[in-house]
Amino acid sequence: MTKPETLQFFDKIISNYHVNIEFNAEVYGMRRLEGKGGARFQVESSQGVYESKVLACAIGIFGRPNKPKDYRLPPTLKERLLFDMTSQQIQNEAVLVVGGGDTAAEYVQYLRQQDNRITLSYRKADFTRLNQQSHDALLAMEERGEVEILRNSNIKEIEDEAGRPRIGFAEPEHTARTLDRVIFALGGTTPTNFLHTLGITFNGNGPVFDEAGATNVDGLYLIGDLVVGKKGGSIITAFNSAVRAMKSICIRDLSCQPRPVS
Questions:
Q1: Phi and psi for 254 in degrees, rounded to 5?
Q2: Domain stops at, among 145, 161, 187
């Protein structure tokens, strides 16, 4: 399916099955409950406290984004210096994407669809971290003039210029420029403290789980990027891991019969 078709399908599923979704709910902590009826877990969030018999974590391998260490981010530009594209509507703006991985390339492609003028800053000369599809798409966009790529570029400073970020680079060949928005795609780390506090067993590769994402803790499942290793996976991998987990939950935890997938 195309992206619009996929989103429409999600909306249909949410409506038909009355899925209860709490948007803008930041999770502060998760803990196991002992001897409290059928509830095994308690989740504390900005929207309240929830208890459940089954808990599936899909916080992603990059749940906590890396932030720049070599220069200061002006607090007055908080709304214009972003680490994802979900918190702001970005359209018809001058945007700088910082990074050289698949996420950065995907940001560039998405932002172009929203009629933005895009610059990509990457600290190396060649893109060695991109999968082939992202690599080819990015270079094709550069050839068509849809993105300006600043190779071998390192940001030296970011200043507030009348409410917009002004970017200064360490290399003299890259002149300073003022833009509407900066989006950082610098990778990140998984907030493993959440998982440790729940009693999940870890080994040298990370949390331990079976083919369905079930951990050593009864009723606790990991899905999405958490089950595909440090390099992350694709959205298809995430969907498939969720299907396997739901089938297992239905059999092991809720005594229901999994529905066949048509």
A1: -115, 0
A2: 187
